[in-house]
Design a protein that fits this description.
The mean pLDDT is 89. Helices cover 37% and strands 21% of the residues. It has 13 helices and 16 strands. The protein is globular and about 65 Å long. The protein is α+β, with helices and mostly antiparallel strands. Strand 15 and strand 16 form a beta hairpin.
Length: 466
C-alpha cells in the first residue's frame, strides 16, 4: 500500500467529465525495418511478461472513507490484461488524418478508476505493415520523466527480444480496511496545520521575486492572468482533436548553435511561429504575446523521494506578435534566462509542498463548479497553452520487440487553455504532438502543418548567419 502525494492526487481531484487529466502517446512501429514478424498475441504476451517491472500498471486506487485523506495504491488482485489492451484496425486509406482522428477519440474517453489507470490500443492496418500503439496513462501515475522511464521498461535496444520474468514475483498484498484508512487519516489531520507555515514562505518567495525584478529592470516570467484571449482560451468539452509532425533534431540543433540559444528556446519559437501562422489564418492574432505554461522536471532537484509527479512550471512569452523568426527566438531566449533565475528563487518543491495540503473534497467540488459554470470564459486568461519538451532516447528503440519509428506525446488540455503541445526527442528526430479541444481548435492539423515551415525559415536564417 502506498499513499498518493498531494500533487499526484490533485490530478484526480481536478478531473471532470470534460477536463480529462490523462496523458497519451502515439507510437508508430515498423516491423519491416528489422524483418520482425508482428503477431498481436505474441506482442500482448510480451507486455504481460514485463508488467511486474512497472508497479503502476498493476495497481489501482483505493479511496479513504469520506475522502479524509489522499487515496492509496493497492495491487489489483483481479488484474485483466485483456481489458487494458485493445485491438483495432485502421480503415483502408485512412492515412495519418484517420489515425489522428482515432487517437483523438481514444484521448477523449475517461479511464475507469476502478482499474489500473492505463489503456493501450493497438492499431493495425497502417501502410507498409506498420502498427500504431495509442497508450493512455493517468497523470496521477506519470509525468514526463516517469512516463519515459516506463517506456524504457517496455523497450529494448535490439529487435525481437523476449523477456523472461523472475519466478518469485511479489504476490498481491491484502487490501487495507476502511477502518484502518480512516484511522490513519485522523492521525494525519494535525499535519495539515503545516499549511499555515507555507503562507510566510510564499510571501518570502514573492518578496524575493519583486526584489529581483527591481534589480534586473523587470525582465522575467510573465505574470499569470495577463495572457491575451484566443479562440482556444475558453471552457473545454470532452471532445479532442490531435495532430502530429516529425522533424529532424539536427535542424533544431543547427538553429540553436547559430543563434547561441537552447534547444528549448528553439522549440518554443517553433511552436510560437506555428501558432502565429494559425491565428493569422483565422484573423485572430492578438497584438500582445501569447503565454505558455512550460512544465519543468524537478526529479533531479526535489528533496521529496515519494510520489510520481515531480514538476514545477515556468511561464514563457512566445513573442507571437514578432514577425521576424530570428528576433522571436532571441527574445524568447533572453526571457527564459530570467525566468530560470526566478524559477530557482521559487524552488523545485513549491508545488509539491502546497500540494500535500490539498483537501480532496474541496478540490473536487471546486473543479466541478468551475467546469459546470464555464468560469474560464469569464475571468482573465491565466495562460494560453501548455508546451512541454521531454528528452527521449537518442538511439533506436524497440517497443516490445518492434522498432519505434515515431513517438508522438499528448498531454492533457485544461479549461481556459484548450491546446497543449508536447515535444519529445527520438533517435535523431523531434516529434511534435498537438492535442486540443475539438470545438475550440477543429483544424489543429494546420498548427502541425506550420511546424516544418517555421523550422525551414529559422534554418535558412541560421545558415545565412553562418
Amino acid at each position: 500500500m502506498e499513499r498518493l502525494t498531494g500533487l499526484d492526487a490533485s490530478f484526480l481531484y481536478l478531473e471532470t467529465d470534460t477536463q480529462l487529466l490523462h496523458v497519451c502517446a502515439l507510437l508508430i512501429l515498423d516491423p519491416a525495418a528489422d524483418g520482425v514478424v508482428y503477431e498481436h498475441a505474441a506482442f500482448k504476451a510480451e507486455l504481460g511478461r514485463r508488467l511486474h517491472l512497472i508497479p503502476a500498471m498493476t495497481r489501482r486506487l483505493h479511496a479513504v472513507p469520506f475522502n479524509l485523506d489522499h487515496p492509496v495504491w493497492v495491487r489489483d488482485s483481479n488484474f485483466d490484461l485483456d481489458y487494458h489492451v485493445r485491438r483495432l484496425a485502421l480503415p483502408s486509406g485512412a492515412g495519418d488524418r484517420g489515425l489522428a482522428e482515432l487517437a483523438a477519440d481514444i484521448a477523449g474517453r475517461p479511464l475507469d478508476r476502478s482499474r489500473p489507470l492505463w489503456e493501450m490500443w493497438v492499431v493495425e492496418g497502417l501502410p507498409h505493415g506498420k502498427v500504431a500503439v495509442v497508450s493512455k496513462y493517468h497523470h496521477a501515475i506519470v509525468d514526463g520523466i516517469t512516463g519515459t522511464n516506463m517506456m524504457m521498461h517496455l523497450c529494448d535496444m535490439q529487435p525481437g527480444v523476449t523477456y523472461t520474468p523472475p519466478a518469485d514475483i511479489t504476490p498481491a498484498e491484502d487490501e487495507p480496511s476502511d477502518l484502518q484508512l480512516a484511522g490513519e487519516a485522523l492521525l494525519n489531520l494535525p499535519g495539515r496545520l503545516g499549511m499555515v507555515g507555507m503562507v510566510p514562505k510564499t510571501v518570502g518567495i514573492l518578496g524575493g521575486l519583486v526584489q529581483r525584478r527591481r534589480e534586473s529592470g523587470g525582465r522575467g516570467m510573465p505574470l499569470p492572468f495577463t495572457a491575451p484571449r484566443t479562440p482556444f482560451n475558453r471552457a473545454i468539452t470532452q471532445h479532442r482533436a490531435i495532430s502530429f509532425e516529425q522533424t529532424e533534431l539536427s535542424d533544431i540543433k543547427e538553429i540553436k548553435t547559430a543563434f547561441g540559444v537552447k534547444v528549448n528556446d528553439v522549440v518554443l519559437a517553433v511552436v510560437g511561429g506555428a501558432l502565429r501562422s494559425y491565428l493569422e489564418l483565422h484573423d485572430e492574432l492578438p497584438e500582445t504575446s501569447l503565454m505558455a505554461s512550460v512544465p519543468v522536471s524537478t526529479h533531479d532537484t526535489s528533496r521529496h523521494e515519494e510520489g510520481t509527479n515531480k514538476v514545477s512550471t515556468i511561464f514563457a512569452r512566445l513573442y507571437t506578435e514578432i514577425e521576424d523568426p530570428v528576433a522571436r527566438v532571441l527574445a524568447i531566449a533572453e526571457d527564459n534566462r530570467g525566468a530560470k533565475e526566478e524559477h530557482n528563487l521559487i524552488g523545485a518543491d513549491f508545488l509539491q509542498d502546497w500540494g500535500k495540503y490539498a483537501p480532496p473534497n474541496t478540490f473536487q467540488l471546486a473543479a466541478r463548479a468551475y467546469s459546470s459554470f464555464k468560469l474560464a470564459d469569464h475571468h482573465p486568461v491565466v495562460h494560453n497553452l501548455v508546451i512541454s519538451n521531454v528528452p527521449g532516447p537518442n538511439f533506436p528503440m524497440y517497443f516490445l520487440g518492434v522498432r519505434v519509428s515515431s513517438m508522438y506525446p499528448f498531454g492533457p488540455v485544461f479549461h481556459g487553455a484548450g491546446l497543449t503541445a508536447t515535444v519529445i526527442s527520438n533517435n535523431g528526430h523531434l516529434d511534435f504532438g498537438f492535442i486540443a479541444c475539438k470545438e475550440l481548435v477543429p483544424d489543429v492539423d494546420k498548427i502541425a502543418d506550420a511546424v516544418p515551415e517555421v523550422i525551414t525559415e529559422l534554418l535558412k536564417a541560421a545558415r545565412e548567419k553562418a
